[in-house]
Amino acid sequence: MAVRRRPPEDEQLRVMPWWLVLIGLLLAALLGWLVLDWLLGEADRAAQPDTRATLRIDAIRTGLTVVAGTGGGLALLLAARRQWISERAQRHQETVAASDQAHRERVQVHAEAVAETGQRHQDRQAEAAEHDAAERRLTELYTRAVELLGNDNAAVRLGGLHALERLGQDNPAQRPTIAAVLCAYLRMPAPDDDARETEVRRTAQRVLTRHLRADDDAWWPGISLDLTGARLDGFDASGCTLVDADLTGAVCASATSFAGAHVHGRLSLGAVFADLVCDGLDGDAEILLDHARISGRASFDRADVGGELSWRRADVERASFRGATFRRPASFDGTRFAGGVTFREATFLGGLSMEHTAFAGYAGFRQARFADMALFRWTEFGGETLFERARFEGAANFGRARFHGPVTFDGATLARRPLVDQARAVADAVHAWPEGTRVDRLDDDWLLLTDP
């Protein structure tokens, strides 16, 4: 394994011994003496005795010159060594100074890093302490508000509602929890004929819906409503933006309104309603009204339903869908309409299914547009049924339907002949069937419609 040598400037400087200088002087003298002896010998061997003296003087002068030159060389060598030592000492000082400066800088940087780390730690501790204090205060406020909501006194419960509302307004992170608490309160059983409790519940409803309007400064975005089995009175979500609202099994007294609401996700309305108003509702939500019970009027006038509509096996007194647009499949299978229903100028872009549906009264589809399949198989039409100027752009199927009142297709346009296999209509009413429909008298009471 090779040993890494240190740079020459890092090696220890060796001191020149005094005897080395003495030897140099002796060598210079010896060299001068040898030169002088040689020159004197040459001068003695000269052929001219009269020039011998001159030659000897020149020889002595030359010998002394050699001695002097050798001594001067030694002196220059010593001077050069002294200069080298001086320069090396200077470099060493500069290296030491640079090293000291670098060390001081590293110490300074380390000290600054330690100070910064300590400051950050202190800041984190302060933030943690502040956060803990805020959380404790928030928890205390929340706990106190919930305690007020559970008080026996209705006025105190009203104060608890407003305390929760203010807490949610000041703390956005707590809004979903507060909304869930209000929904849970509405889901709790309520005593009958208690006017004070009714007012508390109406206030809770208003607190919820007040913060579901996107055009309001107090909007709480992203709030979902779980009101399954709740007791609601005059629930008004008109103009609200709803994401996943569930009223399945709820009992809604007075009129319930979703007029002008913007719905997303899923809107479950399989509840008991006095009246249901959804005029101008829009959005891409899937709307579920399966098993709904509406003792008054259901209105979806000018609604723009972007998701699927499922309204199966429901009971509705009266309904209106004037100018409504259904962009995905809509199903009313098994639903019973006890009063009049109108779909005038409604548009079904994704298909319509009304199999086993029962219309006890008037059923109006004037100027309705069926862009896809329209199924009315086994449907009971109990009163006057109008398809005047309706447009059937897809297949239409009235197989085994029952028409207990007059039926008219005046002005209707059909892309293909409708299927009417085994459909029946009362014989004592005036009907206007689509062109090409075969009608046979079954008995004194019924007409039989068959496909040609």
Walkthrough of the structure:
It is a single chain. This protein has 452 residues and is of the alpha/beta class. It has two domains: 17-115, no CATH class; 223-450. It contains five helices and 32 strands. It has helices at residues 18-44, 49-149, 154-170, 175-187, 195-210; strands spanning 225-226, 231-233, 241-246, 251-257, 262-268, 272-277, 282-283, 286-288, 293-299, 304-305, 309-310, 315-320, 325-326, 330-331, 336-337, 341-342, 347-348, 352-353, 358-359, 363-364, 369-370, 374-375, 380-381, 385-386, 391-392, 396-397, 402-403, 407-408, 413-414, 423-426, 438-441, 446-450. The chain has a 16-stranded parallel sheet that branches. The chain has a 16-stranded mixed sheet that branches. Strand 31 and strand 32 form a beta hairpin. The mean pLDDT is 88.
> What is Rg?
55 Å
**Strand percentage:** 15-25%
* Largest pleated sheet: 16 strands, parallel
Shape: elongated
Indicate the multimeric state.
single chain
Give the proportion of residues in helices.
25-40%
